[in-house]
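Structure in, sequence out. Go:
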């Protein structure tokens, strides 16, 4: 594996092509006066000036909304060299990853709750599936609503809601081209070009990347392209479109399990944290995980009059995935079979897993009317719908091929026989929603919202067996009250519900009530908060919250076959969040957050679970990003990102926990003008002290528990030229 930056032929050639083509593109059309906007180009330091977010749905500024919202802007992502969701979420202490590994789909948890990949993600306000690799090149910001999102998204997990907001055409023509490399040998080129064709604004983002990581046999590549269009079709009426293509091909790296060091069949010991480069998916027949995703969104915005506006949005998404790897799962070489986990000597069984041609598609639409009722009331009325489906190949392969060892890898034969049936699924939902914001007094505002959702779900095995179809109607209310006792200060209280739906798998040999539709699982949140606009560009906020989430769980019966029960266990997450974002002065910008979380099971069919800490959730987590402009040398900025978290519980009984860990990243940027062009030079070092630790320990739905290592010290360099 390479230990120094280098450029491969294709990205380097593409970079030269972009650099030559960019001036021609930028000069091809003069800006039309009909399109308004602010040019977003390379900056010497993060501005941290975002004061609004769409994800909350209330139309308030961040300083005035009775919600906890985090916004990670493109300038902040660039300053920290964040190119993935896993890297971006280090910037907020309430966010964490879950089974986020190289070459695979990224997951996200908020306030200790894992978000649903199908129901907790938006793209420009429209529902999308997160079951696809995310490209950040065309994202203007990532908005995260923390807590229940029943009002905003209906059926969804209670942790929060993520909205990816894409870059849009701007008033001034510009083109930026960047070339980057990292210490593992990876390289990347990216073009962001904004121009206009007549009255239509056009913004194009193109990227190509050679992926090299610290892991053995995990090199890959990706290609990305997006086009955003915007135009005025009539006075007060704007039409916009956003098209995106993303292809990624890279071997995935499975996590390690715990070790059974005493041979009793129970894995309960953490491996040594020196496996930062080990990839157990390294057989000669191992194939890469591959995903090709396309999406298109269209919107019409119409200003009815000075007080009322309407919006209609439509979106579609399609992803095709080849999911393939040599998967480590249990150990059969010891005196007692171990599952989940590894034998004490490092042995682990390997399965040849191949699920080819997985196709997932989605449609979503939303119609919204917003306006004022008198001088003191704002009303939002909306109707939305979505439809998703998963179509998999008739069968997948999951075959035992032998045993390898984490210290002494063993070459094993392949077995691609597709013998296991797949499951296909469908979901349709139609929602109606409304929110009302009222000025009760000059310093008091009330907020009321309500959403009702009609959901139809169905699934069946590829041979038609184990079929389930159900339909449910659920409602999710939300209410808040704010008071501003002082200028630039707001106190608020809010309460809301979220809801999740579940049916018992139609397997009579596994469940007494196979195929039964369970009652809706309603989560509930109460939040108290304070927001203080300490300076025009500095917002300080604090929140205290409590979220109760019920789960379905299995209850033993006399027949020996369990009964699945709605609300069989309940987790309560109580916490405190402190956040400060903005500019301290003309030189110093900060994004700081601290989360203290008490996440425990308060009720359970199994009494031993009551009082136990929820796995993979730290008790405390802190994140501090600071960026300083050096006065003595204009254009030079230095930055650092320090993160710390207490140990996470690994096993349900609390017997195993990850040690507390911290990490320091650093950055250096210099912006100047060369031959009349604005040029920015960036150097970032992730994990500058090269600390080795286990960063997460998720338990998957099939029962497996895995640990993932920290990223070793990694250097990234980038040069960006603006034309």
């Amino acid at each position: 594996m390479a230990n120094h930056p280098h450029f491969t032929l294709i990205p380097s050639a593409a970079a030269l092509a972009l650099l030559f083509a960019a001036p021609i593109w930028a000069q091809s059309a003069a800006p039309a006066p009909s399109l308004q906007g602010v040019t977003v180009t390379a900056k010497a330091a993060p501005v941290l000036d975002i004061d609004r977010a769409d994800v909350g749905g209330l139309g308030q500024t961040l300083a005035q909304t009775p919600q906890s919202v985090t916004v990670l802007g493109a300038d902040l992502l660039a300053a920290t060299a964040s190119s993935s969701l896993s890297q971006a979420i280090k910037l907020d202490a309430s966010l964490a990853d879950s089974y986020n590994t190289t070459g695979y789909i990224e997951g996200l948890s908020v306030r200790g709750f894992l978000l649903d990949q199908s129901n907790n993600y938006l793209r420009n306000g429209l529902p999308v599936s997160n079951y696809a690799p995310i490209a950040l090149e065309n994202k203007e910001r990532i908005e995260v609503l923390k807590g229940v999102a029943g009002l905003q998204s209906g059926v969804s997990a209670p942790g929060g809601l993520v909205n990816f907001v894409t870059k849009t055409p701007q008033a001034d023509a510009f083109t930026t081209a960047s070339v980057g490399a990292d210490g593992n040998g990876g390289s990347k080129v990216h073009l962001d070009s904004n121009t206009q064709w007549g009255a239509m604004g056009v913004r194009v983002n193109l990227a190509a990347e050679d992926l090299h990581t610290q892991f053995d046999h995990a090199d890959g590549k990706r290609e990305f392209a997006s086009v955003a269009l915007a135009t005025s079709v009539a006075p007060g009426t704007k039409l916009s479109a956003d098209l995106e293509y993303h292809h990624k091909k890279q071997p995935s790296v499975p996590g390690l399990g715990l070790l059974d060091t005493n041979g009793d069949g129970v894995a309960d010991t953490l491996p040594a944290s020196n496996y930062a480069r080990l990839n157990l998916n390294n057989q000669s027949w191992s194939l890469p995980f591959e995903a090709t995703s396309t999406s298109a969104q269209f919107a019409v915005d119409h200003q009815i009059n000075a007080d009322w506006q309407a919006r209609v949005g439509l979106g579609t998404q399609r992803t095709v995935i080849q999911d393939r790897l040599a998967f480590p799962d249990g150990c059969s070489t010891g005196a007692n079979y171990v599952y989940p986990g590894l034998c004490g000597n490092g042995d682990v069984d390997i399965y040849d897993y191949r699920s080819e041609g997985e196709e997932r598609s989605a449609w979503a639409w939303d119609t919204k009317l917003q306006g004022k009722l008198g001088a003191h009331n704002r009303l939002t009325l909306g109707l939305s719908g979505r439809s998703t489906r998963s179509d998999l190949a008739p069968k997948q392969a999951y075959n035992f091929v032998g045993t390898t060892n984490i210290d002494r890898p063993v070459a094993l034969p392949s077995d691609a026989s597709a013998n296991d049936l797949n499951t296909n699924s469908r979901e349709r939902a139609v929602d109606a929603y409304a929110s009302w914001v009222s000025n009760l007094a000059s310093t008091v505002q009330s907020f009321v919202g309500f959403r009702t959702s009609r959901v139809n779900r169905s699934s069946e095995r590829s041979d038609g067996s184990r079929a389930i179809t159900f339909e449910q109607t659920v409602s999710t209310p939300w209410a808040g009250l704010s008071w501003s006792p002082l200028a630039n200060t707001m106190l608020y209280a809010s309460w809301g519900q979220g809801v999740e739906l579940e049916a018992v798998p139609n397997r009579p040999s596994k469940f007494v009530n196979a195929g039964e539709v369970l009652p809706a699982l309603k989560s509930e949140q109460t939040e108290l908060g304070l927001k203080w606009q300490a300076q025009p560009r500095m917002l300080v906020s604090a929140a205290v919250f409590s979220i109760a989430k019920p789960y379905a769980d299995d209850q033993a019966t006399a027949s020996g076959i369990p009964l699945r029960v709605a609300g069989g266990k309940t987790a309560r997450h109580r916490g405190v969040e402190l956040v400060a974002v903005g500019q301290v002065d003309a030189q110093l910008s900060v994004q700081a957050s601290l989360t203290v979380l008490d996440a425990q099971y308060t009720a359970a069919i199994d009494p031993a679970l009551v009082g136990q800490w929820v796995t993979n959730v730290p008790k405390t987590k802190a994140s501090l990003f600071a960026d300083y402009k050096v006065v003595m040398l204009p254009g030079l900025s230095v930055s650092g990102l320090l993160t710390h978290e207490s140990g996470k519980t690994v096993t349900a009984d609390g017997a195993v926990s990850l040690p507390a860990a911290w990490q320091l990243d650093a950055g250096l940027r210099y912006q100047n003008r060369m031959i009349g062009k604005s040029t920015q030079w960036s150097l970032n070092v992730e994990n500058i002290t090269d600390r080795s630790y286990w960063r997460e320990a998720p338990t998957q739905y099939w029962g497996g528990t895995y640990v993932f290592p920290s990223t070793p010290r990694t250097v990234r360099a980038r040069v960006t030229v603006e034309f």
